[in-house]
Write a structure and sequence with these properties.
The protein is elongated. Helix 5 crosses helix 6 and helix 6 runs antiparallel to helix 10. It is mainly alpha-helical. The protein has ten helices and no strands. Among the domains are: 120 residues, no CATH class; 86 residues, no CATH class.
Length: 299
């Protein structure tokens, strides 16, 4: 003890502890003692890998979607009795949407798990949970990217169609798109109808009456009588036949709208199912990629 400058054991208790403790215990390297809080202050999300996997999944989805659209347009013909039927094309589109969602999600999820950082001092269950979460995050980011791109493309196409439609209908009076046109027309209704076979004003007014009847779910008696008289004056058919034509046409239009509503509902349900399968595929593929990442050995 004199060697360490200590006169008694009470003055240097640490020296006595070192002398009585085996040397192997002091020489053993324990990373949890050297860096006890390193993992506690690190994030469980590898955002670089998540964003990279998301962009890869989104690009794969858009490429496969364009491929499927190309094949679909080549298989479907606008002429009747040629090409694939509507039901066959619809089933093929649903299957293709589910398939490309699985392929893109697996690709993006696997890249996310393989490119993430290697977590040390973390339990195996926690690593599995983090890989699953990173895969779901990559799928979510890819979904946002794809929806944003498709929405912007759709808005651009709709804008071009609207410009072409506006240019084609420029100069026409009584546009059906005018919101208050229906109510204004009721102010100028007359019992004296001119028999002009190409009267665009009368057709536009009939279109507004028709649109209002579809929006209300039924046509009023006054509108039905006026529209029947208008059709009878323009076509030469009897009043009874004109009223029957009005009712049959409105019923056919409502049936078409109801069919379109059912088709849209079924499409949204299948789209929900495909997205759900994509989320599961991305998370599972991320765990596979993460497991392979942890088994890589440095050379």
């Amino acid at each position: 003890m004199a060697l360490f400058g200590c006169r008694s054991a009470q003055e240097c208790p640490e020296v006595i502890s070192m002398a009585t403790t085996p040397f192997a215990e002091h020489s053993e390297y324990r990373p949890e003692r050297s860096t006890p809080n390193r993992e506690a202050h690190s994030s469980g999300v590898s955002w670089g890998a998540v964003i990279g996997g998301a962009f890869a999944a989104s690009a794969s989805y858009l490429i496969l979607l364009a491929l499927g659209a190309g094949f679909g347009l080549s298989a479907v013909s606008p002429w009747s009795n040629t090409g694939a039927s509507a039901s066959t094309a619809g089933i093929a589109a649903i299957v293709w949407l589910i398939l490309i969602e699985i392929i893109a999600s697996v690709f993006g999820g696997y890249l996310t798990g393989r490119l993430r950082t290697k977590w040390t001092l973390v339990h195996t269950d926690e690593v599995y949970f983090r890989d699953t979460a990173n895969g779901i995050l990559a799928w979510a980011v890819a979904l946002v990217i794809s929806v944003t791109f498709l929405a912007s493309a759709a808005a651009s196409m709709v804008g071009q169609v609207a410009q072409l439609s506006a240019a084609a209908t420029a100069g026409n009076t009584g546009s059906p798109a005018e919101p208050n046109g229906y109510f204004v027309d009721t102010l100028f209704r007359s019992d004296h109808l001119a028999n002009e076979p190409n009267d665009r004003t009368a057709q536009a007014e009939a279109g507004r009456i028709f649109a209002n009847a579809l929006a209300q779910g039924q046509i009023s008696g006054a509108d039905q009588l006026y529209l029947a008289r208008l059709i009878s004056a323009k076509t030469g058919i009897t009043q009874a036949d004109a009223e029957s034509r009005v009712l049959n046409t409105i019923a056919a239009a409502r049936q078409t709208e109801d069919t379109a509503r059912k088709v849209t509902a079924h499409l949204l349900l299948w789209l929900f199912l495909s997205l759900l399968i994509g989320a599961f595929s991305a998370s599972y593929a991320a765990t596979i990629g993460g497991r392979q990442r942890d088994h890589v050995k440095a050379v």
